[in-house]
Amino acid sequence: xxxxxxxxxxxxxxxxxxxxxxxxxxxxxxxxxxxxxxxxxxxxxxxxxxxxxxxxxxxxxxxxxxx
Length: 67
Hints:
Layout: E1 10-15, E2 18-23, H1 24-30, E3 33-40, E4 43-50, E5 64-66
Protein backbone atom coordinates (compact mmCIF):
# COMPACT_ATOMS: atom_id res chain seq x y z
CA UNK A 1 0.00 0.00 0.00
CA UNK A 2 1.46 3.35 -1.09
CA UNK A 3 0.37 6.90 -1.79
CA UNK A 4 -0.11 7.29 -5.53
CA UNK A 5 -1.88 9.31 -8.19
CA UNK A 6 -4.48 7.51 -10.36
CA UNK A 7 -3.38 6.27 -13.78
CA UNK A 8 -5.37 4.94 -16.75
CA UNK A 9 -4.53 1.43 -15.55
CA UNK A 10 -6.21 2.00 -12.15
CA UNK A 11 -9.71 1.77 -10.69
CA UNK A 12 -10.57 4.64 -8.32
CA UNK A 13 -12.96 4.15 -5.39
CA UNK A 14 -14.36 6.71 -2.94
CA UNK A 15 -15.01 5.02 0.44
CA UNK A 16 -15.93 6.85 3.66
CA UNK A 17 -14.13 10.02 2.58
CA UNK A 18 -11.00 8.20 1.37
CA UNK A 19 -9.86 7.76 -2.22
CA UNK A 20 -8.51 4.28 -2.95
CA UNK A 21 -6.55 3.63 -6.14
CA UNK A 22 -6.20 -0.02 -7.19
CA UNK A 23 -4.40 -1.32 -10.27
CA UNK A 24 -6.96 -2.94 -12.60
CA UNK A 25 -4.78 -5.99 -13.23
CA UNK A 26 -4.24 -6.52 -9.48
CA UNK A 27 -7.99 -6.17 -8.88
CA UNK A 28 -8.69 -8.81 -11.54
CA UNK A 29 -6.27 -11.16 -9.77
CA UNK A 30 -7.35 -10.56 -6.17
CA UNK A 31 -11.06 -9.86 -6.78
CA UNK A 32 -12.46 -8.13 -3.66
CA UNK A 33 -9.99 -6.35 -1.35
CA UNK A 34 -10.78 -5.41 2.26
CA UNK A 35 -8.86 -2.61 3.98
CA UNK A 36 -9.00 -2.44 7.79
CA UNK A 37 -7.14 -0.30 10.31
CA UNK A 38 -6.05 -2.51 13.20
CA UNK A 39 -4.33 -2.03 16.57
CA UNK A 40 -1.87 -4.68 17.71
CA UNK A 41 0.26 -4.91 20.85
CA UNK A 42 3.31 -4.06 18.71
CA UNK A 43 1.66 -1.12 16.90
CA UNK A 44 -1.12 -0.33 14.47
CA UNK A 45 -1.59 -0.09 10.73
CA UNK A 46 -3.62 -1.04 7.71
CA UNK A 47 -4.47 -4.69 7.05
CA UNK A 48 -5.33 -5.69 3.49
CA UNK A 49 -7.00 -8.99 2.70
CA UNK A 50 -8.29 -10.30 -0.60
CA UNK A 51 -10.76 -12.90 -1.82
CA UNK A 52 -7.94 -14.60 -3.74
CA UNK A 53 -4.69 -14.50 -1.72
CA UNK A 54 -1.62 -13.20 -3.52
CA UNK A 55 1.63 -14.64 -2.15
CA UNK A 56 4.75 -12.75 -1.18
CA UNK A 57 3.22 -9.71 0.52
CA UNK A 58 3.15 -10.97 4.10
CA UNK A 59 6.04 -11.68 6.42
CA UNK A 60 3.93 -14.11 8.44
CA UNK A 61 2.83 -16.29 5.51
CA UNK A 62 -0.89 -15.46 5.69
CA UNK A 63 -3.15 -14.10 2.94
CA UNK A 64 -2.90 -10.56 4.27
CA UNK A 65 -0.32 -7.93 5.06
CA UNK A 66 -0.09 -4.97 7.40
CA UNK A 67 1.32 -1.68 6.18
